[in-house]
Amino acid sequence: MTIGSMENVEVFNSEGKGRGLKATKEFWAADVIFAEPAYAAVVFDSLVTVVCHTCFKRQEKLHRCGQCKFAHYCDRTCQKDAWLDHKKECSALKRHGKAPNENIRLAARIMWRVEREGSGLTEGCLVSVDDLQNHVEHFGEEEQKELRVDVDTFLQYWPPQSQTFSMQYISHIFGVINCNGFTLSDQRGLQAVGVGIFPNLGLVNHDCWPNCTVIFNNGRIELRALGKISEGEELTVSYIDFLSVSEERRQQLKQQYYFDCTCEHCQKGLKDDLFLGVKEDPKPSQEAVKEMIQFSKDTLEKIHKARSEGLYHEVVRLCREALQKQEPVFADTNLYTLRMLSVVSEVLSYLQAFDEASHYARRMVDGYMKLYHPNNAQLGMAVMRAGLTNWHAGHIEVGHGMICKAYAILLVTHGPSHPITKDLEAMRVQTEMELRMFRQNEFMYHKMREAALNNQPMQVMAEPSMEPAPALFHKKP
Ligand SMILES: [Zn+2]
Ligand SMILES: [Zn+2]
Ligand SMILES: [Zn+2]
């Protein structure tokens, strides 16, 4: 496999969407179209002491920068690699006394880079930071106010001996961060840990049913093909999760990214019938459907509240009750049912009630398979979690099947060198061996499983996170 370079793409004018990128040759599923290091990136405020400021890996023990005592690194290598970007930041942090928020820190890193290299095209970039969209003219009153506060704080933080930028330019940079800031995840892809600017990625337009996906791996992003892409075809990624009816997706995109989605799935409302699916036989009355939707919305709100307070048993109780009530009304692809299934399987796994969790997880995966693109990264991650839950519950055949399925998806969306794909490969090998043993000698299988569980070769379930599917770009919803 060759790593794509910028020779594989070309900037063009995409009708109705402004600039876009198109392929200059044919691609197949799992091809890397291009890889791009961050122009500038920072760790989120809440994680500055637990995530490396250079490679964005979560680590047990990090070394602190002796000067500012703010920056944290894996080791000397990461610290050395950071110095060019950190040098001016380090003294600014000392002078300022305390670290400003992530937006300000990112803006300053971008501007130190502009100061260092000029504002023209950087090597390997098809667009300069100056030329990225900022959408400041679309800002509402609230956003305008936040922008003014950010600019004020920035001016206090920005050292007087550094290059002076106009107010307009500073606003532009904050606008760029607001619409192009890409969410960086930790090495296992489980937690959003920071935000970065990737100019080339900023040129890739949105489609709710895209032909590419973006993954952050080892300090850079990769644009990967989800299927065959013909020469000359526009390259697209999805800025949001697919699992909402088209009207809601369009609202979300308009609100967060300031455009009206005209993709085929939105125009034709493709899959909306499945998202809103109701039972066929007997068909519930319209009144019953309406009532069930309202009940589901109310319950989801209660679930969200209970979950944020850590009342996991209450979450489970609410989900069980809702799923039972939804049963005679909603089809298995209905989004309200799928949201309950997703929460309850995740929380039950966390509570180690694997058997009950595994049944809900299976139903969820069955529904997802009918809705998502077969190579969707969210689908791959959900199938992986469901596979692990089934493995923990001792359903080795289902568990192994799901882990294989997840592995196949992640080979496309994450690539073979990504840590999660590697984890999955190890799980696939182990569950395959267990399955063989299960078929030969069930007694031995259970003995071995016990031993395996005691050794904990598989990752323990993470505490259920509050975030739904992470957004591609770092936006306040
Ligand atoms: Zn590091
Ligand atoms: Zn420092
Ligand atoms: Zn769309």
Automatic annotation (TrEMBL):
UniProt KW keywords: Cytoplasm, DNA-binding, Metal-binding, Methyltransferase, Nucleus, Repressor, S-adenosyl-L-methionine, Transcription, Transcription regulation, Transferase, Zinc, Zinc-finger
Principal location class: cytoplasm
Top EC group: transferase
Source organism (scientific name): Marmota marmota marmota
Example of a GO biological process term: methylation
MF GO annotations: DNA binding; histone H3K4 trimethyltransferase activity; zinc ion binding
Quaternary structure annotation from Swiss-Prot or TrEMBL: Interacts with HDAC1, HDAC2 and HDAC3. Interacts (via MYND-type zinc finger) with NACA isoform skNAC.
Listed name of the protein: [histone H3]-lysine(4) N-trimethyltransferase
GO-annotated cellular components: cytoplasm; nucleus
Encoding gene per record: SMYD1
Pfam families found in the cross-reference section: SET (PF00856), zf-MYND (PF01753)
UniProt entry tagged with the keyword Transcription regulation: yes
Domain SET: 7-240
Subcellular locations according to the entry: Cytoplasm; Nucleus
Catalytically driven reaction(s): L-lysyl(4)-[histone H3] + 3 S-adenosyl-L-methionine = N(6),N(6),N(6)-trimethyl-L-lysyl(4)-[histone H3] + 3 S-adenosyl-L-homocysteine + 3 H(+)
Coiled coil (UniProt feature): none
Entry EC no(s): 2.1.1.354
Ranges where the MYND-type domain occurs: 52-90
